[in-house]
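Sequence, please.
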């Protein structure tokens, strides 16, 4: 058995396909395909020092990691390394080799703190603890059966509110960028994030992402102004994912996010998608309550772990 660790090679379709295959096996509730893997590498911010690392056993990709620096945090020296090994290829040393390569890269990029999401399973948590990581906050993955389940009925929006798709902003997505930046900055997290002002990078990395479905993304307008939204991704199969649902601070408490998400879910089901996935921090009570109302059920939990380098 020969086990090696290296970076994903840019523009190499076999590397991208192998990376996506392992991610889907380890995290079946997150959307990934070869196109999105290659896109993420090509459009990462230069200050993120982003790397995609793979472990190969006799030429077969069996482990992956997404590694980078949280460049948009006001706290210096914060990095992340999310490591996943194919469930059928564990206990072969791949994870340990990837962790070592990731930490060396982050230390070289100036990081002194590393965060890592770890599936809440005994073997995975034990692996993290053996490598010096201690548990922090947690988050749930949630699944909704779009094919067999029952969605809440669509209701007419209140006066002054209109629901439109993301395509409504095809000519000028800046209003959506401003809404996304405000709501993302307020998400519960171990790491503080500055509210983004980099519109051009958002266009490249988020708005033009190959998994983003502008048609299934729904936005609630209040007097023509974006007030809440539910951003949707699809992976070319029958799976649909909500990657962000939020409301601008001035419009919270009016049920607008629920309206937007319900509209998106109904259109996703009408388009033939059979499974819906999303994720929530366990401390995000309002969003967990909304997803429970829709019928989502917890299908897995991750615990964020942290280690101080050096």
């Amino acid at each position: 058995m020969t086990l090696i660790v290296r970076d994903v090679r840019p523009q190499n379709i076999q590397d991208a396909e192998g990376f996506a295959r392992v991610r889907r096996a380890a995290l079946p509730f997150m959307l990934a395909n070869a196109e999105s893997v290659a896109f993420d590498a090509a459009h990462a911010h230069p200050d993120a020092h982003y790397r995609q690392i793979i472990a190969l056993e006799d030429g077969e990709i069996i482990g992956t990691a997404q590694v980078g620096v949280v460049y948009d945090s006001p706290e210096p020296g914060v990095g992340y390394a999310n490591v996943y090994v194919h469930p059928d290829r564990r206990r072969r040393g791949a994870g340990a080799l990837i962790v070592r390569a990731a930490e060396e890269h982050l230390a070289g990029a100036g990081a002194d703190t590393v965060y890592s999401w770890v599936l809440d399973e005994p073997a995975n948590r034990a692996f993290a603890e053996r490598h010096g990581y201690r548990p922090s906050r947690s988050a749930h993955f949630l699944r909704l059966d779009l094919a067999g389940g029952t969605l809440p009925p669509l209701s007419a929006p209140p006066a002054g509110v209109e629901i439109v798709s993301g395509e409504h902003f095809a000519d000028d997505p800046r209003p959506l960028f401003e809404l996304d930046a405000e709501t993302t900055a307020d998400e519960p997290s171990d790491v503080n994030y500055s509210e983004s002002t980099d519109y051009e990078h958002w266009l490249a990395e988020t708005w033009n992402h190959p998994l983003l479905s502008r048609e299934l993304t729904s936005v609630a307008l209040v007097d023509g102004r974006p007030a809440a939204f539910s951003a949707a991704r699809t992976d070319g199969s029958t799976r649909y994912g909500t990657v962000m649902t939020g409301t601008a601070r001035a419009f919270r408490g009016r049920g607008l996010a629920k309206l937007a998400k319900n509209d998106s879910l109904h259109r996703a089901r009408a388009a033939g998608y059979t499974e819906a996935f999303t994720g929530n921090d366990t401390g995000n009570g309002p969003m967990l309550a909304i997803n429970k109302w829709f019928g989502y059920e917890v299908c897995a939990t991750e615990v964020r772990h942290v280690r101080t380098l050096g």
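Residues 41 and 310 are 28 Å apart (CA to CA).
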